[in-house]
């Protein structure tokens, strides 16, 4: 029941967003459109950023479910390209709402940080769906880079009414290749920073151990 109610809330919010600016849509209006009281709405979402996060998780789940009957193939670039493009195809029914939300999706730094965290979760699933394994600093940088690529490509997708997604595909392919080239250039600095971090961590642990031993000896 909980998931069904959250989906009803998402659908109600996005119906409203297709008609008016996201900033003008209130929580009471979303509750009414979803057939809920404000108190019932509060039991399922914490606010408008949470609704956007719920929508993102809903789309993540739909994307991952699509792999069962339509797995991605090819090299890492092709797999990731197909996954990211597939997400835009899934977003198509919500394009009018997304266009309004994208203009002012958050109100203040706290909400922006929440949206960034949500976007990073999506990139984690995108990489998993494309069977690309990255960890540590390289993984974090890749997720941030993919978040920017998705945002930049989203603007192209919103700008053009292109049923074949030709412009979107061209922009996505170009940005992914630019991102791959940047990641290759960053491999050595990332490895160096990771090595230094391990050295500093080891020194800190040795210093802590020495202080503990000195304290025990003094006792």
Topology (SSEs and partners):
Layout lengths: L1 H16 L9 H7 L4 H5 L5 H19 L9 H16 L3 H9 L5 H21 L6 H24 L6 H53 L1
Helix pairs in contact: 1-2, 1-4, 1-6, 4-5, 4-7, 5-9, 7-8, 8-9
N to C succession of SSEs: HHHHHHHHH
Major beta sheet, specifics?
none
Integer tally of domains: 1
Percentage beta strand: under 5%
Give start-end ranges of low-pLDDT stretches. Answer: 188-197
Mean pLDDT: 85
Judging by the overall fold, what is the CATH architecture?
Orthogonal Bundle
What is the general shape?
A: globular
Our measurement of the CA-to-CA distance between the termini, rounded to an integer number of angstroms, reads 60 Å
Q: Can you tell me the CATH class?
A: Mainly Alpha
Which structural class do you get from the secondary structure elements?
A: mainly alpha
CATH level-3 fold name: Tetracycline Repressor, domain 2
Assembly type of the chains comes to single chain
User: How many helical stretches?
Assistant: 9
The total of beta strands comes to: 0
Helical residues, percent: over 70%
Features:
219 residues, mainly alpha, Tetracycline Repressor, domain 2, 9 helices, 78% helix
Structure overview:
This protein has 219 residues and is mainly alpha-helical. The chain has a single domain (48-218), classed as Tetracycline Repressor, domain 2 (Orthogonal Bundle), CATH 1.10.357. The protein has nine helices and no strands. The chain has helices at residues 2-17, 27-33, 38-42, 48-66, 76-91, 95-103, 109-129, 136-159, 166-218. Helix 1 crosses helix 2, helix 4 (48-66) packs across helix 5 (76-91) and helix 5 packs across helix 9. The longest helix has 53 residues, at 166-218. Mean pLDDT is 85; it is low at 188-197.
């Amino acid at each position: 029941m909980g998931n069904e109610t959250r989906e009803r809330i998402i659908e109600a919010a996005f119906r409203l967003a297709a008609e008016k600016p996201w900033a003008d849509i209130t929580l009471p209006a979303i509750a009414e459109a979803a057939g809920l009281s404000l108190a019932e709405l509060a039991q399922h979402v914490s606010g408008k950023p949470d609704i956007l996060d719920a929508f993102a998780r809903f789309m993540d789940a739909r994307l991952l479910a699509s792999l069962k009957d339509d797995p991605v193939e090819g090299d890492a670039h092709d797999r990731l390209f197909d996954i990211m493009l597939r997400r835009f195809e899934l977003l198509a029914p919500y394009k009018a709402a997304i266009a309004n939300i994208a203009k002012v999706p958050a109100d203040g730094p706290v909400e922006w940080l929440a949206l960034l965290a949500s976007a990073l979760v999506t990139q984690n699933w995108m990489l998993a769906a494309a069977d690309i394994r990255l960890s540590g600093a390289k993984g974090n940088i890749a997720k941030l880079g993919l978040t920017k690529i998705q945002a930049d490509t989203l603007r192209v997708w919103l700008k053009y009414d292109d049923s074949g997604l030709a412009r979107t595909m061209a922009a996505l392919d170009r940005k992914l290749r630019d991102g791959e080239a940047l990641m290759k250039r960053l491999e050595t600095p990332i490895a160096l920073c990771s090595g230094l971090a391990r050295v500093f961590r080891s020194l800190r642990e040795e210093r802590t151990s020495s202080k503990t031993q000195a304290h025990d000896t003094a006792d």
